[in-house]
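Q: Could you fold this chain for me?
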Amino acid sequence: MAFGVPAGGLRPLIARYHGYREHDGAPGCHRGLPSPYLTVIVTLGEPLTVATHPDVRQAPGQYDTLVGGLHTSPALITHQGRQAGVQIALSPLGTRRLLGLPAGELRNIDLDAADVLGRTAHELHERLNAASGWPERFAILDELLLRHAGRERPVPDEIARAWRLLMSSGGRVPISDLAREIGWSSRHLATRFAGEIGLSPKAAARVIRFDRTRHRLQRRAGSALGLADLAAESGYYDQAHLARDFRDLAGCSPTRWLAEEFRNVQAAASVATADSMA
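A: Sure. Below is the predicted structure, expressed as structure tokens.
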């Protein structure tokens, strides 16, 4: 695994880069979980196989490059013991500039990155596969994404502020307080926010809280901390509330997810990156 911080001009758009490579492992299935970031993946070598998309009506597919919007159910990614690529965590506040459209238009779908990045997606794939190591790959990402980033109309200030408040609170700010803080009615906020971000404020808060909780769960695997303590620390009513969110958003219980995913290179990269950003 390798981790990279985007160049200064990209930091308002992209939270982080991480690279992953696994050889000669056991065939497996990785759950692509809901998170507060859109996902951009450029594979190295074999394509990414998505067996089940967040919207189960979308047919399975293979991708050399992929863009995935915000979602509230897991994607299932299969591999034969070999997987490698670079994953980019794209803020919904940066989607207009980097992809040329609001994050709301990508809700719950996965696309070939060429559909939104055009020729830049093909150049990324070619040059990252030809690069000699992770520092060079991250430098190529900076170069090509800075060149591609446009100057589309920014996210409205009120929505950007609401998103940042949700993120800074870990999804724990009441939506009525959020609306009052930015000076809109709750209904108007819900409509405008969902159109821009792709999730309602309530759904976004739920995903943000879940994302932070599952990273805490990974970091503390094997510790004496119980799920009841984790639930209280993360803002859930009780352990049953946490378990319901995991079943809804991850498709399984917290303990089953941890057992399945902790050895997965992409899941391990995800939690290590979260630690580096803390």
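A (continued): Strands lie at 2-4, 14-22, 28-32, 38-43, 48-52, 61-63, 65-68, 75-79, 83-90, 110-112.
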